[in-house]
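Slide 14.
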Amino acid sequence: MAQLAALEIVASGSNRIGLPRRTVAYTEALRQVPRAVSIVSFARGTDRFGATATSLSSLSLEPPTILVSFDGSGALSAATASFGVSVLGASQVELADRFGHGAPIDDAADTSEGSWVTAASGVVLRSDAVAAFECESEEVIERHGRAIVVGRIRNIFKAGGSGALVYWLGAYNSIGWSDDEIRRAVGLFPIP
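Slide 15: predicted structure.
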């Protein structure tokens, strides 16, 4: 007969365990959950901004709807109703870092391979994203310094190519191969 392993309670929501221990346990537990890395892009007037999402998930298939959250409460609610989500590829760590706490989108300062392209709604998306979503905001919830957004998907774009960038165990990692790794594997470039 198989024996079931017991889970050790390292923290509890009860008042008996102090906040610091519970916070550390919560943070450590979340580090075990790999998350796709995406940039949420939006505009305020003529200014364009981006922020690295802290989470992205599918809310509904019909209608196609996503749930996304990012630092910077109030940023999207003061912006237009449309926004974009660009799922980053394995080689795009620099972009994830640049938009970690939100930043203006500046085409002239962008030195990465891809570029920002403007969708029909006016939102900008990464041309080199693994996948990109043009969305309309249905609801913005502001909690604990974060914007939590329910977005109805208007258009879906798939660039494909490289593996996806994920955040796991407190660092950026990748799932799948990058374009450079594929080229090296098939002998298109010499291995450095």
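Speaker note: DSSP finds three helices and twelve strands in the chain.
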